[in-house]
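Support request, please re-run this one:
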Amino acid sequence: AHLNADSLFAAIRKDFAKIPDHRARNASIPLDDALMSCFAMFSLKDASLLDFDKRRLDEPESLHGVFGVGVIPCDSQLRTILDEIVDQRTGRAVYGGNGND
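Re-run finished. Output below.
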């Protein structure tokens, strides 16, 4: 395997695609797009969801091309989606845990 950003992002997207999406079947934003948007926000070091939302509007091509995000959620959509990705039994995030797993 090649070690470059494209292969890393593809591997991350592949892992995100394995996370069960318990939202309605007609959800307009695929879960892996929402999660890749979060990854992009942290990778690009946006200070807040609002800063990321501005980037979404000003530079959508970088999110589509570099991170492979098809549908980019706005900040409120992203908050809603992330709030739904919690294991109700433990209250822990479904993906990632606390870094000690």
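The mean pLDDT is 83. The helical segments are 5-17, 31-43, 49-58, 60-65, 75-84.
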